[in-house]
Amino acid sequence: MSNTPHTLGDEFPDQMDAIHALKAKSPEFLHVLTEYDAVNDKIHRSETRLDAISEAAEADLRRQRLMLKDKIVASLRNA
How far is residue 11's CA from residue 8's CA, in Å, rounded to a whole number? Predict the structure, then answer.
């Protein structure tokens, strides 16, 4: 448990201009970003003990966040 927020700005500091441009052009990419933020918020709330969830549920959320991050990376490469 790292208790690090993993915001898009933290994860992709050099890519923020590209992220903003792509989300303005692609509703699908915007959906992935929105989903990433929602999952990331759930993980952070669990890590900070604001929401109690099982370790298995938190692990599932972490896998989902990684999958979404992979989609973001792929979209940025293809842009």
Answer: 5
CA dist 31 and 78 (Å) reads 17
Nearest Cα to 36, choosing from 58, 54, 61, 57? 61
Displacement of CA 54 from its chain's centroid (Å): 20
Tell the burial category of 43 from Cβ atoms under 10 Å away from its Cβ (0-12, 13-18, 19+): buried
> Which of 75, 79, 63, 61 is CA-nearest to residue 32?
75
pLDDT by residue, tens only, the chain of 79 residues: 555 678 999 999 999 999 999 999 999 999 999 999 999 999 999 988 888 899 999 999 999 999 999 999 999 999 8
